[in-house]
Amino acid sequence: MKALAARRHDRRAPAMLLLLALLLVGAVYAVVAPSSAEAVTKTATADDITAGEKLFQANCSTCHGPSASGTDSAPSLIGVGAAAVDFQVGTGRMPMQMSGPQAQAKPVQFTDEQIGQLAAYVATLGAGPAIPTAEMVDPALGNPASGMALFRTNCAMCHNAAGAGGALSQGKFAPNLWETTPTHLYEAMLTGPQSMPVFNDANLTPEEKRDIIAFIDEQGEGSPGGLDLGSLGPVSEGLWAWVVGLGLLLGISVWIGAKSS
Amino acid sequence: MSTPHDHDRDLAVHGDGHSELPARFDNPGLHEHQPRQADIDPKTNKRVERQVLALFTLSILGTIAVIWAYFALPPGDTVGSMRLSNLVLGLGLAVCLLGIGIGGNYYIKVLMSNREYVEERHELRSSDETREIAVQMLKDGGEDSGLTRRGALVGAGVTALALFPLSILVPLIGNVGEDWNVRKFKHTMWKKGTRLHTDPTNRPIKASDVTIGDVWHVIPDGLDKVEHGMLDEKAKAIVLLVRMDPRDIKSDQSPEGETWGHEGIVAYSKVCTHVGCPVALYEQQTHHLLCPCHQSTFDVADSCKVVFGPAKRPLPQLPITVDDEGYLIAQSDFAEPIGPSFWERATK
């Protein structure tokens, strides 16, 4: 073991160990990659409207105005529908805690029941898209192949070909879609939150929206090739090849060229 | 260039005032041979031998694992089974090749004799006699072939050989880019009355179905009927359709007396005027359209003017209107060639 012990003190050893550890972590991650979360189902009744209004006045009216008709700092909520509320509040984007390029997803601030009450109240302000039913967003009922064709044309330019997300202008970005629940995906397409445009039911029919959800659901299974490196394309793959791949080759070359003790 | 005297003085200057350098260096010879740990210590020797043996055995096991995985773990139909199959095949192959490579190198470095040997080079120059014979043979051969007397023949032969590559090069270069007809870059499939269809579902678009904040990816009606070069036609004709509050529209590209939009619905070419990437990252709130390749940003609310990035021209607008049934149709083709610049762009 002396030869090995001597090499352990080599100053290249930590770098090699780090590379090996990276490889190991990657391989383990590829095997035990997390799968996507399950769908959320909820029901809202007309009785909740009063409770919803109270919640609205306490939490939302500062920016959106006491009558929800909007202020200089926030848009009107009349006619945005229950789907917009369920998406914005259900993903933690609202209530917004600080201003910035865009409202970011964060831990959800309300219970499912409270979100339902808020959505019920906002839905009474004006006609708008409703929260989709569980069947409308069930990935198992969608056709992922058709979803891929639609995703490629309508979504991939911002959200990346595999839904990994991507940058927009001036600090805005299109988020990763893998952890988003099917209901929230559907609501985002329907309501066009923030920078995202609207894809109404004439543009993408409810069945086509479900196909897209099925395609995104397929991405949760990971890449058949193994490590997907975040599915970010040439940036992460190039970094991996140049740093890890060439680094290993250099390390091996140095080892082959070094004299034995 | 310099006399011996000058030369000496130069050396003395560079020698930092030390004693003068010798006229000729002696060959320092090889380093003294340093025995390795495994050369002296039989225990180390044995241990390294066992390690190399283990590495080669590992390689054999790797090969067996690859063959086993090929039969026992087919890729199957699910992502999980494909990933497992690829992972085991890849790891097996890595172990099999790394075992041979590392084992072989380890053996050569540590166990194989590393005593230095010196082999003197033999003289490269042939003997005078051989050289004379060779020259004479060339001369005789030249005489024999008769080429030394037939200058015109040699000239013609060399010319024929020199021209021959043109028979390959001219068609090869001529075929680059299929053909040299640049006129087709100036026109697209759009013409008066062509309906706007959705991409890829190929449905006509009713103006009343387009809501504010929408973005539609549009292809011309009849694209699916194109038999030759469908993708080329599609690449030229793709259009992005958005609707915004008409009060938000600062300007569009319609000339005096014409209306190229329809109640806040505007359609612009999706081909970037920089190098032709599809520009489709539409930010609904700012009405900015971002090109993913080089971050050129266009303001859809203001004639698609360039607000950032390397593009130099606005995206061309497709003049649209509605037909009797309320479907969106084109008024004409684009008024200017779409996409990046090319030499003949300005000519008609």
Automatic annotation (TrEMBL), chain A:
A single MF term (Gene Ontology): heme binding
Domain of life of the organism encoding this protein: Bacteria
Sorted UniProt keywords: Cell membrane, Electron transport, Heme, Iron, Lyase, Membrane, Metal-binding, Repeat, Respiratory chain, Translocase, Transmembrane, Transmembrane helix, Transport
UniProt PTM: Binds 2 heme c groups covalently per subunit.
A Pfam family hit: Cytochrome_CBB3
Claim: Metal-binding is one of the keywords in the record: yes
Residue sites binding heme c 2 per the record: 155, 158-159
Name of this chain's protein: Cytochrome bc1 complex cytochrome c subunit
Protein's organism: Cellulomonas gelida
Automatic annotation (TrEMBL), chain B:
Cofactor (UniProt): [2Fe-2S] cluster
Signal sequence segment: none
Annotated CDD domains: Rieske
Region (Disordered): 1-44
Zinc-finger listed as a keyword: no
Top-level taxonomic group: Bacteria
GO molecular function: 2 iron, 2 sulfur cluster binding; metal ion binding; monooxygenase activity; oxidoreductase activity, acting on paired donors, with incorporation or reduction of molecular oxygen
Protein keywords: 2Fe-2S, Cell membrane, Disulfide bond, Electron transport, Iron, Iron-sulfur, Membrane, Metal-binding, Oxidoreductase, Respiratory chain, Transmembrane, Transmembrane helix, Transport
TM regions (residue ranges): 52-73, 85-108, 152-174
Main subcellular location: membrane
Database matches in Gene3D superfamilies: Rieske [2Fe-2S] iron-sulphur domain (2.102.10.10)
All copies of domain Rieske, residue ranges: 236-329
Membrane topology: Multi-pass membrane protein
Database matches in PROSITE patterns: RIESKE (PS51296)
GO cellular component: plasma membrane
Described purpose of this protein according to its UniProt entry: Iron-sulfur subunit of the cytochrome bc1 complex, an essential component of the respiratory electron transport chain required for ATP synthesis. The bc1 complex catalyzes the oxidation of menaquinol and the reduction of cytochrome c in the respiratory chain. The bc1 complex operates through a Q-cycle mechanism that couples electron transfer to generation of the proton gradient that drives ATP synthesis.
UniProt family annotation: Belongs to the Rieske iron-sulfur protein family.
Protein name: Cytochrome bc1 complex Rieske iron-sulfur subunit
